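Re-run requested by the PI after the first attempt was lost when the workstation crashed. Everything re-entered from the original request form. Ligand of interest: cytidine-5'-monophosphate.
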Amino acid sequence: MGAAGRYGGEAMIIAIDGPSGSGKSTVARLVAERLGWLHLDSGALYRALTLAALQRGARMDDPEALLSVAMTSRVELRPAEGEEPRVVLDGADVTGAIRTPQVTAHVGALADVPAVRARVTALVRQLAQGRDVVADGRDATTVIFPEADLKVFLDAAPEERARRRFEELVRRGTPVAYDEVLAAILERDRRDRERAVGALRRAPDALVLDTTGLGLAEVVERVVCAADAIRARRAARAEHGGSASEEGR
Ligand code: C5P
């Protein structure tokens, strides 16, 4: 995708990634809410396709079967006032169902399939066409939107990420032990780093935020400030006769 056409003309893209439990989805949702932009949670798409595969009884070690599920499932993100977008799989609302430990346990296998990743990447870009979006996901800044206006890499110590995930599961009413959540986080970190395609990497020009010990509001504030600075620069350049789409990022 060329820089001039980018991802839909003048629309702006903030891409956020980081390891699992770094808070990227929550931060992306709150930043999108603050700015009034669309939140594109690419992890939710991987989760929805994993749920579809489980529902259809596909073998999770069969890449062909997983790709077939990915190509024949319709996943939508429907913006919802004041809350995360609803995730809709073949017409059914699966927003809650995609967060179960069963889906979490299998999503890595599906996300390991390069052709499935290509499908999800295309879907996310398509959903972003012509809109201001905040996209998050493990390869959001490196593969999905390498030319995003702002790239953010969120990090935090594994124990802190496990604590956040544990509290989120408890809030959702899913019974789970902290030690299991930590073990799952460490295992997912390893897989996420080592996979051949779509591995977790830091984009060299990403704003790196270590969120250990930082409140959510503070993290959101820093991302919004960085976005505001970019918008102000673009506006100033446009006023001085330059086209925003010619601007180097
Ligand atoms: O962000 P979340 O934890 O919901 O994502 C679920 C899983 O989907 C991740 O652990 C990862 O395996 C996969 N994923 C991915 N690439 C993305 C987003 C998510 O491989 N861009």
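Saved to the shared folder this time. The domain at 13-228 is CATH 3.40.50.300 (Rossmann fold).
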